[in-house]
Amino acid sequence: MQLVLLSGGSGKRLWPLSNNARSKQFLPLLEKEDGGMESMVQRVVRQVKEADIDAEITLATNASQLDIITNQLGDAVSVVTEPERRDTFPAIALAASYLKLHKQCDDDEVVIIMPCDPFTETGYFRTIGKMAECVKKDVAELVLMGISPTYPSAKYGYVVPGQGADGEWLPVARFTEKPTVEVAKQLIEQKAFWNGGVFAFRLGYIMDIVRKHIQSESFEDTRSRYAEFPKISFDYEVAEKAHSVAVVPFSGEWKDLGTWNTLTDELHHTAIGNALLGPKCENTHVINELQYPIFVDGLKDVVVSACPDGILVCAKKETENIKKYVETLEHRPMYEERRWGTYRVIDDSTYDDGSHSLTKSITLQPGKNISYQQHHHRTEVWTFVEGEGIFVLDGEERHVKAGDTVVIPVEHWHAIKAVTRLTFIEVQMGNPLVEDDIVRKEWDWKD
Amino acid sequence: MQLVLLSGGSGKRLWPLSNNARSKQFLPLLEKEDGGMESMVQRVVRQVKEADIDAEITLATNASQLDIITNQLGDAVSVVTEPERRDTFPAIALAASYLKLHKQCDDDEVVIIMPCDPFTETGYFRTIGKMAECVKKDVAELVLMGISPTYPSAKYGYVVPGQGADGEWLPVARFTEKPTVEVAKQLIEQKAFWNGGVFAFRLGYIMDIVRKHIQSESFEDTRSRYAEFPKISFDYEVAEKAHSVAVVPFSGEWKDLGTWNTLTDELHHTAIGNALLGPKCENTHVINELQYPIFVDGLKDVVVSACPDGILVCAKKETENIKKYVETLEHRPMYEERRWGTYRVIDDSTYDDGSHSLTKSITLQPGKNISYQQHHHRTEVWTFVEGEGIFVLDGEERHVKAGDTVVIPVEHWHAIKAVTRLTFIEVQMGNPLVEDDIVRKEWDWKD
Predict the structure, then answer these.
(1) Complex ipTM
(2) N or C: fewer beta carbons within 10 Å in chain B?
(3) Mutate to test the interface with A, among B343, B352, B381 (most CBs of A within 10 A)
């Protein structure tokens, strides 16, 4: 069985914690039984394994998320990256092409598609097992999960079941897009389910549809022609056109922790990071990723989140609306996880004389390296403050350690590899208006 | 006439904006008519000048405030610094000794003592003029300002007037320390005033009392013997022992902007710094001195203050109580104004291997310099990012400018002088537990 986790795009609804490089599914905010913290996607991958589902996992995602996925999941999953954002049908078509053309899976193999970040429980994964059984028994071309609604939400699509069932599944009569609350009430009276975006089918079924758009024997070729897939959702292109669709009900815990309001309900601590809540706080959560201590008092139903990208102080009930405001605050990412480690912008200043400096704290994991590169419009000064590594300047490797400083003038080629965990403070000076001032080439490490 | 402004100590009640090096009276938060900003002490000095009082101003303060006073007031005032904190009587005794022994003022000269930071209006300064007239007419040994109470406060001392007056002044029958609210109501029925800490007397009167504790012909000698003054308030040591005391009433605007609740009432803008308030905010103020953008929504009667020392998010009515909590958050000052300019800590990190780095952005004003110094336990790397200056290392002066980097190893003597406004990023590495790791000596600048 092949399990494809769809990893969605940038989320501004959990600003400032989430940004383009760190979507909500990667935030390490959920507490595990052992007291450690995990992200939503780490939790789902762990749950898949604990549910003893015999499935190989593939993450379908945008290229910008590759580094953070590698950091969080290591080699536990395969990753398929879309060259550009389109819609759910192209993303699933590309993942299916990967399974068929790259992994050489059989046409009869059962494929499960699901979001990478539902906050749910074991029963959800047992339901996935039942869906796979239904596909194997050929009860329908397409089998989807129907989540029992707990209230008449206007946020979800609905699946209306028809007559006839065998207990484990029901036939699907029709789909309904996000309805009004009034219509949602009627749908619930008709025993409709929420469409949670979990689909099961045989690989051959979806590949027949894929080949209507791109016929190719090579995954790399398919990926290079990704723009030929129409920008359309899986629901429109596949689910609504299927000759037979079955739904397998699930009625356990299932939440989208996509807003501060829903996310803070699942936090075990009211203060994460350097923060103190006074005695007059009620249902108030503070998440502090900055070095500055936070003191909060006299607030009720409020979330405070302080991160390198900004600081949010908001009544929880208003957090669904922050997106449109914080988009006006946008500036460069102030924190990123990369395949080699992390960086944090600690100062970004423009001076009266027009000069500009950007100061970062950069940490490389042992054995990792930053690529060999040059800049045409900026100089950099690196002061090593932790660990040791190998530094290359214009083809010369040298050993560096905490206490050393290196100056990298404009146009000089440079790279760095960590021997132990390695941290340096980088001061960049140059023209902040020149974007992508970077040229890379290969370096063959001697040491 | 000599006007002595008493500059009080560190205030935690306006944390994180105020700290040991920046008390509330120095916060540049009040808007002037021209739209510029000024601090409470700048406002008072401006008001004294606008009221056309013919007075020389002396600021009596702690040594730690000297740099910021010089930055804010330049040469407009004389400054007397106490070698240690004692109480109001020693502070006033030292200021009087300065006027008598250093400035050689006459015994008959009228001295006015007042706090440096009342939020008040022109009438207050006209009242000071009336008090000086009363002293000149010898209506009493000691003349004080009586502020008409607006409510039965338990926060202030009260002055109860006796019989007999000439319209401008009343004799004082007795003083009452901070009463209960019940007693305060009775005092107000008896026409009592608040004691606002404004006193007028002839210099000779106070010097007779000073000489009971320290007899000296030299101000420097008096200052060096400062510890011989008893730790006692001016009210106890002088006002309550005086043979005759008069009170001059004042009934205009007068506030202590000592808590966030009172201070934010006087702010002209709800957002100062990089901050955005959403449409669901009511009576909410944000003061942001950090580079991180702040978004606030859905809050009522709340203050948000983000500064290098920390971040406060607090219901305004709880702000009187923050002191005891934020004292537990204490760490090194993250921002200071010095006689040469300012610095800001942008990163303070300890690493797994025990090493430590402290990164600052340091700005010197043109012509100013940092003293010639060495450190036994830390190295420093300075990367200049704005302007130009003269750098000294082990006795060698050299010109430096934006783009240059200098490395200062342990035990090497160094100093820097700004030619233009000069900014550099300093990365310190060393033992953070060694405090005051600095030795200074004179440097005779050639350039």
Answers:
(1) 0.81
(2) C
(3) B381
